[in-house]
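Quick one - first record:
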Amino acid sequence: MNHFIQQAAATRYAAARPYIHPHAIAKIRTFLRLAKPVPQALDVGCGTGQSSVALTAIATHVTGVEPSEEMNRHAMKHKQISYVQAPAEQLPFTATTFQLITVAIAFHWFERERFLKEAVRVLQPAGWLIIYNGGFLGKVPQKPELEHWYWHDFMTRYPLPSNYNKQPLAENEAHAYGLSFRHRDMYQLELTWSPQELASYLASMSLVNAAIERGDEREEEILSWLNDSLTSLFPAPVMTLTFGGYIEYWQKIA
């Protein structure tokens, strides 16, 4: 099930997601010691193209792959990017096409066995598969009440969808498909947001989309609850919030 297939979900996503990908790409550039951009990179599960645009900093040409037609409709245009509508498990490319594949905030949705076979197939020998995640970390030491609300009110009201696979990729699992683990890194950044901006971001998440799809609540009701809750929890018109995530580096066994 794709929780971003509906037009409204794609619209919320495009409008509310912060552009955090350059921070991960900067870490990737450093670890790979790239003196110049790679010729061809593939961004799988590219959503509205934020991750693809960030990837152009280290790739001459980027192909962004996304299964949702509506997300593709909202994709950010860029002269170095070509977008293709396709599932991660069925990549429409010839073997050994790409030097680098990135998966940004999407791996948890993939049928990972089928995707890993495809990723290894289209990667060149010694090519890189880099999986990274990122978002609001849910840590608010300056306002414990907000942190408690996020983990105990919001996450209880909107649990992760059943098809969200939060298990990390294991080394033995990846090795079976021809990938070797090389490194794991972390990154983070701070954003100054209003309660309305945080509410819009939370409303764009898959767990909220899933609740709307099930008919549990309407979008208007959810946004009203989020805005009312967060406005009462913010000590000022804006607050500094910490975003970030992990980066994992996997290399194709030559």
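second record:
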Amino acid sequence: MLALGIDTSTRAGSIGLADDSGILAELSLSSGRPHSEGLLDAVRSVLAGAGARVDRIDVFAVASGPGSFTGLRIGMATAQGLALAAARPVTGFSTLEMIALCCPVPSMPGVPAGDSGAAVCVLTDAGRGEVYRGLFRRVGDEMTQLAPERLMRPQEAAAALPDRCLVTGDAVAVYRELLRPHLTGGRAVVEPPPAIGGGLAVRAVRLGSASRLPPLRPNYLRPSDAEVTFKG
């Protein structure tokens, strides 16, 4: 099975290709360019690098948010267009959960290598002085959601960090000084946050049949500026 993963929900973004053996190719998008400008070129590069063709893709997997409204729409529209042309299914996975799943596990006292046994707190920059927070526990390749994904003030997210927690996501760099007093004991920062394009593709391959793939639904967590303006 061959899957293409597309993440345009995060600031960096990434594209990944995977089959049953694992990730075949992965490419981070340029954070200095809008994702709309480089996305299709990146898809072509990843496919060419692995000697694959878009009509050979079995499933397209997209990061469904939360994240940039424009970024989410670009990624979903591109994947849906490619999937329609290839007559293949398209699926979506939580951006925050995928970051947690792809987060490298550092060496921690009393914890077996490769097994965090700790919570993974993902903080991504939501703008307007807020962050998107996801809280998970990872044991091997299994993820458990410890709390609903939320839109929060960074001060609230920092104060609510559990003990023995890995913290990652692009909001770490934005709110480093605010987080610093809370990074004590068993809490550790993992930077830079991982690319998830390859992880999206791997997750789709592991689920296998189309009947097990979740539907592609955007997860915005808050109304868009246009909605706020209209209601106001």
